[in-house]
Amino acid sequence: MCAAVDLHPSGYYTWLKHPVSQREREDKRLLAYIKQYWLESGGHYGYRNIYLDLKEAKIQCGRDRVLRLMQQTNIKAERGYKTPKGYYSGKPDNTAPNVLKREFVVSSPNQWWVSDITYIHTHEGFLFLAVVMDLYARNIVGWSMSERMTDDVVLDALTMAYWRRKPTGTVKFHSDQGSQYASRNFRKLLSKLNIERSMSRRGNCWDNAVAESFFSNLKKEQIRRIKYKTREHAKQAMFHYIEMFYNPKRRHTSNGRISPNEYERLYFQNQKSV
Question: What pTM did the predictor assign?
Answer without folding.
Answer: 0.71
